[in-house]
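Structure tokens please, single chain.
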Amino acid sequence: MSDLALGWHVCKIGDRFAAWEPLAQAIATTLGGVPGLPGAARGIELRHDHGSQYLTDYFQSTARFHGFTPSFALLGEPETNGVVERFHRTLKEQIIHGRSYKNLAQLRAAVATFVPIYNHHWRLEKLRYQSPVEARIAFQSTMPLAA
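Here you go.
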């Protein structure tokens, strides 16, 4: 389900290693894999923009190793990466704008508190006013069981 926040990372410098951190979290906690072992994300398209951190050999080769298929947003058209752009907007509106944090630890704590609220309770119009978790459960219930 594309609206579910599967991993996050707060940092001062957004380099290729920081960009990989949320994906490592998703592999470990949601996809049932172990970061460092191949194929856990096989068949999953990874949508991202053309930021330099995503274009590095490290990021691209690590993503492919784990099974992600890159799906680049169109240049100059942020709406093609709309799900994450909307999530970032909501995150900023709810915990960033109008607030001050003394350090990264405080900000990380705020994000760590917000992400589960978003996933479990945030009603999204595009998901027929279900939370991302509810939509994922509904979607998975329509999938045939593996033999």
